[in-house]
Amino acid sequence: MTSASFQPVQPSSRPARRAVIAAAGAAGIAVALTACGSEDDSGTGTGTDTEVDAGAGSPSSGAGDAEAGGAGGGTVLGKAADVPEGGGKVFGDVVVTQPTAGEFKAFSSKCTHQGCAVKDVKDGLIHCPCHGSQFSATDGSVQKGPATQPLAAAEIAVDGDSIMRI
Questions:
Q1: Contact (Cβ atoms closer than 8 angstroms) between residue 108 and residue 121
Q2: DSSP state of 27
Q3: Which terminus of the chain faces fewer neighbouring Cβ atoms within 10 Å, N or C?
């Protein structure tokens, strides 16, 4: 009878197969989430972060109507002249639209699908460049998915030619 000698299994200096697969999966998820994350588009507006007294200007007739008079103030987003009738303009984290002459609406510029920043307003639609969602420039409702929730309304006021977030 021969005796067999067994050597104990030595731990390998290489990572286990499960650890490699888990790390690869986590990296893939991180890349996907980063690709769909929001972008800082703060350079699109003019006068952002400038505090002003709202004074006795006219209130917005859009989402979140608010009286501009009194002791309140607001953050200037841009000029009303920069928002074309039937279109809109993105001012940082707010998209302002003008569905009809003199009627201004405002919504979050963060797409409700995966948080990308919407980029433009054309033909009455607010467009998200990441996955193609489209929202109504009149009420922020979803017109084309994959988004299923409307854009959140933002409160603005128009004082002369200034659009202010209130």
A1: no
A2: H
A3: N
